[in-house]
Write a structure and sequence with these properties.
Blueprint lengths: L2 H10 L3 H14 L14 H17 L18 E2 L8 H10 L2 H4 L3 E2 L9
Helix pairs in contact: 1-2, 1-3
């Protein structure tokens, strides 16, 4: 499995610890995000998660994301990347209103500082 697809699967599995670790490795190993290839899958959730994470990482690194990310649309059903947002009204509202734009536009909701590295 390609590293980007592994990132996407960690997003979809709500495995925040694995996602954070994979993202740190991915950023360290991929200095130019614009050159990342589209995952070879037809799974729309994997594609949406891949595009969202890549755009988020590119935004924070002040880089351009790959062109293919523009072709990927939103999910049919939203996914909350912090499971407790489903039971905590204020956290859910925060995620819905302040989730980073690359995530929010495809139906992924997280706190505004999601995947920020120190």
């Amino acid at each position: 499995m390609e590293k980007l697809e592994a990132l996407a699967r960690a997003v979809l599995d709500n495995d925040g610890l694995l996602l954070r670790s994979l993202c740190q490795d991915f950023v360290r190993e991929t200095p130019l995000l614009e050159n990342c290839r589209r995952p070879e899958t037809r799974d729309e959730q994997v594609l949406a998660a891949s595009a969202s994470i890549l755009e988020l990482l590119a935004l924070r690194a002040r880089q351009s994301p790959p062109k293919w990310t523009q072709e990927i649309g939103p999910l049919a059903q939203p996914i909350y990347l912090v499971p407790s947002a489903l039971s905590m009204k204020r956290l859910r509202a925060l995620c819905e209103n302040e989730s980073p734009e690359p995530l929010r536009k495809r139906g992924f909701y997280a706190p505004p500082n999601f995947l920020e590295f120190a």
